[in-house]
UniProtKB/TrEMBL annotation:
Residues 3-96 form the Pyrroline-5-carboxylate reductase catalytic N-terminal domain. GO terms for molecular function: pyrroline-5-carboxylate reductase activity. Its main location: cytoplasm. This is Pyrroline-5-carboxylate reductase. Residues 159-263 form the Pyrroline-5-carboxylate reductase dimerisation domain. Its EC number is 1.5.1.2. It is found in: Cytoplasm. It comes from Pseudonocardia charpentierae. It is an enzyme of class 1 (oxidoreductase). Belongs to the pyrroline-5-carboxylate reductase family. Catalyzes the reduction of 1-pyrroline-5-carboxylate (PCA) to L-proline.
Length: 266
């Protein structure tokens, strides 16, 4: 089995470890790094995976998954540069950071794959997009797709589209949470208890998502099936259009894309 080390065991890093274990990867073939000793002990107790330092992780692993915050990447790369073995695959889960950043710092020829996951990885339902750097082969990409398939779905895209992916699916769960929050508030405004409103909306959101995935129908078709002539739904849709909700979403996602581009340049 390939030994995988997760560098940075925050929520996403831990979710990946848990997904790999659930998919059958032995705990002995996994490692992780964590700056906070108490957190490291907690994760080892929960998952049976050893916590090590960055140089040891690099020396003992064939795949290194970088899951630190983008602002912490420079000191991590400084540690990796001296310890990385030739041929080690580096997988970046850091939003906005291009493969060229790693390739400029790490030893020449290091294969790098850039990934944009999202937080539903915590429940095994991530949407991840992978892109290969200059030295990443189809075999490298296939290995990363298999690894991420243990925690959700995966698509392969050119790296030039990663900023759009970051804006759309990387940040996407937040948009849905925002919408659900507003709908729960609407239920309270209409006189429903908060718990009842939340149950109604969360189950409706879950059911709608399952319908979209399993039917394969365009969202317009599914929406029209709920929209009766002169009914309640069309009255609500008219208000959404009148208040520019569609335009606001387009502008918000475009702004997220622009911010991802900015982070990559920095």
């Amino acid at each position: 089995m390939t030994r995988i080390a997760v560098l940075g065991a925050g929520k996403i890093g831990e979710a990946l470890l848990a997904g790999l274990l659930a998919a059958g990867q032995p705990a002995g073939d996994l490692l992780f790094t964590e700056r906070h000793p108490e957190r490291a002990r907690e994760l080892t107790a929960r998952h049976g995976v050893a916590a090590v330092g960055v140089p040891e992780a690099a020396a003992r692993s064939e795949v290194l998954v970088v899951a630190v915050k983008p602002q912490d990447i420079d000191p991590l790369l400084a540690e990796l540069t001296a310890a990385l073995k030739p041929g080690t695959l580096v997988v970046s889960l850091c939003a906005g950071l291009p493969t060229s950043l790693y390739e400029q710092v790490l030893p020449a020829g290091t294969p790098v794959v850039r990934v944009m996951p999202n937080t539903p990885m915590l429940v095994g339902e991530a949407m991840s997009a992978v892109s290969g750097g200059t030295h990443a082969t189809d075999e490298h990409l296939a290995a990363v797709e298999k690894m991420l398939g243990s925690v959700g779905r995966v698509v392969r895209l050119p790296e030039s589209q990663q900023d759009a992916v970051t804006a759309l699916s990387g940040s996407g769960p937040a948009y849905f949470f925002f919408l659900v929050e507003a709908m729960i508030d609407a239920g309270i405004l209409l006189g429903l208890p908060r718990a009842v409103a939340a149950e109604l909306i969360v189950q409706s959101a879950y059911g709608a998502a399952v319908m979209m995935r399993e039917s394969g129908d365009h969202p317009v078709i599914l929406r029209e099936a709920v929209t009766s002539p002169a009914g309640t739904t069309i009255a609500a849709v008219r208000e959404l259009e009148r208040h520019g909700v569609r335009a606001a979403l387009l502008a918000a996602i475009e702004a997220a894309r622009d911010r991802s581009v900015e982070l990559g340049k920095r």
